[in-house]
Design goal:
alpha+beta; globular
Length: 150
């Protein structure tokens, strides 16, 4: 058994240690906000936090989570009222929405380390997250909104 915290709650997995964390989160534990995108850590759709650090759960073995804290998009806010989630609505970020959980988790990791990032820092940090709908300007605006406290 692999024991860890998921969104502040005790969690266990009986999956093989090399099973990607993404599939444990989605299939075994039933939290489907984290998405499968590419399976190669290239698109960012599967981004979650491990002890506050953004990681790609599609290539992270569940064994890495042993004794650690994992946070998914569902764990940002129990009511969906995290400042980033509010900014996403205000800036009309989501189009298809598929990449948004990964975008939000990457943005949250950035803001936890740098509460007032510059536009260049935001673009650089978010460059590893792909959006097929091309809402990059809205994503940056949403992060800037939170950084400004709006």
């Amino acid at each position: 058994m692999i024991d860890f915290q998921l969104n502040g709650q005790a969690a266990q997995s009986s999956a093989a240690p090399d099973t990607p964390l993404l599939w444990v989160i989605r299939d075994e534990l039933g939290l489907t906000g984290t998405k499968f995108g590419c399976g190669m850590a290239q698109c960012g759709a599967c981004t979650v936090h491990l002890n506050g650090e953004a990681i790609r759960s599609c290539v992270t073995p569940v064994s890495v989570a042993q004794g650690q804290r994992v946070t998914t998009v569902e764990g940002l806010s129990p009511n969906g009222d995290h400042p980033l989630q509010k900014a996403w609505v205000a800036e009309q970020v989501p189009q298809c929405g598929y990449c948004q959980s990964g975008q939000l988790m990457s943005a949250a990791a950035l803001l936890s380390k740098n509460a007032k990032p510059t536009r260049v820092q935001i673009v650089q940090h978010m460059s590893g997250n792909l959006c097929r709908c091309g809402t990059y300007n809205q994503i940056v605006a949403g992060i800037e909104r939170v950084a400004k406290g709006a």
